Structure formats: structure tokens, C-alpha cells
UniProtKB/TrEMBL annotation:
This is Mitotic-spindle organizing protein 1. One of its GO terms (cellular component) is centrosome. Belongs to the MOZART1 family. Coiled coil: none annotated. The keyword Transmembrane does not apply. Pfam families: MOZART1. Keywords: Cytoplasm, Cytoskeleton. One of its GO terms (biological process) is gamma-tubulin complex localization. It comes from Anopheles darlingi (Mosquito). It is found in: Cytoplasm, Cytoskeleton, Microtubule organizing center. The keyword Secreted does not apply.
Amino acid sequence: MPEPSDEHNSNLYMRLQQSQLVRANIQNISQYLNTGLSPETLDICVKLLEAGVHPQSLAESVILIRNQMAALENNGDTAH
């Protein structure tokens, strides 16, 4: 198997650096907007958006899941 060229390695390194910078910026924006989304959840959302999920549909799904989780937690609190 041929050795990867220095140019190829440099390109991969630059893409990784840009990816990390973009990820950090998304996390900063999320914190600024007080979304309450974890870094892992943000990564999943970004991957879904990159895969073609409609942004409004994704936002509505996140809100629905949060509401359902809150309802489950509230029902658990009243059961004690």
C-alpha cells in the first residue's frame, strides 16, 4: 500500500482542525443561547442536519422529547 503524501496528511490535519473549531463554535453558540444541549447531543444534531434532516423538524423533535422527558420526571416525582 502506498504511503500517504505529506499534502494528504496536511489536508486531513487542516480538516480536523476546522472540524474541531466548528464544533467548539457550535457549542459556544449553544451555551450562549442557553439550549441546555450537551456536547454529545449537539454532535448528534449536527450529524442529523448534515444527513439532510430538516432543521425545523429536528428542533420540534428535540422540544417534543424534552417535554416528554419532563412529563415522565414529573410523574415519577408524584409517585413517591
